[in-house]
Design brief:
Length: 388
């Protein structure tokens, strides 16, 4: 096995592979079904927002100086007149401003100021929301590549949209290997419980994909080759078999099938044997190591940026954390370390973070990337948020 790519280079290669992958074109989807989908094109406002001048307060629309003669709501105003208005209500023509309900007293078709009302309450334009105050017609209100939240959907609705152009959801075929894996109950010595079947579909969904099928395979060359060729999907994700022992078949299967290896391995711990390939039919394949934590680090490094590239969103952003303790070096390999936050704000390795362990990741605040040279206390380190 080659020494592989550096962590940041592997991540960049996965994003580029996603951008290059062929996928179904974007589709118009009803607004209420767009949460969590990726916007495929810049979204313009179809009208100014608000599209009419409206009141920011309950009270009265007023014209000129008071006291004012009261006229019915919505009536165009002449100087010396006022009309009731509610928050969000249409401002009548001729209005100078809105007088809040607590600043006036209305009786016998006459509106008067309350004693002590500040002069600024009578300023021109007071408590009026002008048309187009939030956005002008044609302005981009949500950028392409945005993963849509309910707040984005509210903006789209206010701006006149009933459906949105969203990127197709990549369909992921899962191939789970391992003769020693059991799916229920308490395993006997030599057997292990399956951690991938219950977790990978949810994580892939957080990355913007959708598991379209899942199959369990024995550790066998012919079965693995047949499964990869026939599993369908836009992306294939495999677990286990990424090493070079006689029991590991994935690399030999890919070589025999004419696949192009884009990331042969990654200079990181855990997760070094992870790989990324492009199958002869153009589908990307992510090979995850069999150890659970190693596989999770490979998912963050390869699967997340791959699916981001396929759906047109940006890769998950890195932020920085302050090392809360000395972190040992590992020769020529970055280390992805689930961390917790110490009382002083420093990032410290979580407990139980061996490559086969998941307790530390389950309790972690994120994953910090420790360079091969290690890190001193107080050093700033890149870090990734967890997808949950």
């Amino acid at each position: 096995m080659s020494s592989g790519l550096r962590w940041e280079d592997a991540r960049a290669a996965a994003y580029a592979a996603g951008q290059a992958a062929a996928l179904r074109p974007a589709a118009q989807v009803e607004l209420a079904a767009c949460a969590g989908r990726t916007l495929a094109a810049d979204l313009p406002a179809l009208l100014p927002v608000p599209h009419y001048a409206s009141s920011a307060m309950d009270g009265w629309a007023i014209a000129g100086t008071g006291p004012w003669q009261l006229v019915p709501a919505g009536t165009p105003l002449r100087p010396g007149q006022a009309a009731p208005v509610v928050t969000g209500g249409l401002i009548p023509d001729g209005t100078d401003g809105v007088l809040r309900s607590e600043c006036g007293t209305a009786a016998a078709q006459r509106l008067e100021l309350c004693p002590g009302t500040e002069e600024r309450e009578l300023a021109a334009g007071r408590h009026i929301r002008p048309a187009g105050e939030e956005t002008a017609a044609g302005a981009v209100v949500v950028a392409a590549g945005t993963v849509l939240t309910p707040a984005h959907l509210a903006v789209a609705a206010v701006c006149g949209h009933d459906a949105l152009p969203v990127a197709a959801v990549p369909r992921v075929a899962l191939l789970l290997t391992g003769d020693e894996v059991v799916t229920s109950g308490i395993p006997v010595p030599g057997r292990v419980r399956d951690t991938f079947g219950p977790t990978l579909p949810a994580i892939i969904a957080r990355f913007g994909g959708e598991v379209g099928g899942s199959r369990r395979l024995p550790d066998d060359f012919a079965t693995t080759a047949e499964a990869i060729a026939g599993c369908g999907g836009d992306v294939v994700v495999t677990t286990g078999g990424t090493g070079t022992s006689d029991a590991d078949h994935l690399r030999r299967v890919l070589d025999a099938a004419g696949a192009t290896i884009l990331v042969p391995s990654i200079r990181m711990r855990p997760g070094h044997p992870a790989l990324l390939a492009r199958l002869a039919d153009g589908r990307p394949l992510v090979g995850l190591p069999g150890n659970p934590l190693a596989a999770m680090m490979a998912l963050l490094t390869l699967a997340d940026p791959l699916l981001a590239g396929m759906t047109g969103r940006a890769p998950a952003p890195l932020h920085t954390v302050r090392a809360g303790t000395a972190l040992r070096p590992i020769h020529d390999q970055d280390r992805l370390v689930p961390y917790g936050t110490a009382p002083d704000g420093g990032a410290v390795p979580a407990d139980h973070i061996g490559s086969a362990m998941m307790r530390g990741l389950a309790a972690a605040d994120g994953v910090m990337v420790v360079p091969a040279a290690g890190a001193d206390p107080g050093q700033q380190l890149p870090a990734l948020d967890l997808p949950w």
